[in-house]
Amino acid sequence: MSAASIPSPLWAKPNRCGVIAALDTPDPARAMGWAAAVAPHVGLVKVGLELFCAAGPAVVQQIGQHRPVFLDLKFHDIPNTVAGAVRSVCAHPPAMLTLHGGGGGAMIEAARRAAEDSAGAQRPAILAVTVLTSFSAAGLAETGVSGGPAQQVLRLARLALSAGADGLVCSPHEVSRLRDAFGDAPLLVVPGVRPAGSDAGDQARVATPEETAAAGADWLVIGRPITASADPAAAAARIAATL
Ligand SMILES: O=C(O)c1cc(=O)[nH]c(=O)n1[C@@H]1O[C@H](COP(=O)(O)O)[C@@H](O)[C@H]1O
Fold this sequence. Notes:
The relative contact order is 0.15. Helix 4 (79-89) packs parallel to helix 5 (105-119) and helix 7 crosses helix 8. An 8-stranded parallel beta barrel has the order 1-2-3-4-5-6-7-8, surrounded by 5 helices. The protein contains 11 helices and 8 strands. By secondary structure, the chain is of the alpha/beta class.
């Protein structure tokens, strides 16, 4: 989707797959530079733990001058604590925010209620992270989860959506199975996306932007293939052009 066609509310489903640029740096000036450069080519920009912990909550508003912000702090705590954190970030509501799906239904329900109570129609979309894209089946088994990533993603997705999550974060490998199971409605936000020939780094369950979009993703979260490029704007434009 073009940057000019962001729907309202900000997190409503895009009419075609778009890009979210992950601004992973501790340096807010660098993040602002990236946000300005990629803004014409992406729908949202992501503020994650590295930038938020270095720069503080004010960075969400600053970065938001360029594009709507996906605030990815992956809350995972008791329901009361997560509800409080959601209220705190809703002082200046981002467009989307993440919780860990493994935090359970009561935590997700509390987050959704807190978002509605404190931000009303301006509330962020609540996204439940399922199985991190850095997990292989073997890595997941080490944590005590048997059955493989796809089965665990479906289990956590069912729980999260019935508790009021608006969408899910999953890898490219689970997108089509989630669409088969839950239809078109949930927002599917998908990291672990790598243009052909680019380095996977620490990502285990990856696919190309074209494959991920064709499977049914709404948003592709892409960091290093854009930010580690000599020309982040051109890298974002190239990816957006393939969708
Ligand atoms: O919630 C996320 O955004 C997320 C979930 C997940 O399972 N995997 C994952 O990589 N991410 C984030 O997506 C971004 C991916 O960055 P790159 O691997 O550099 O493209 C990072 O900012 C991660 O924090």
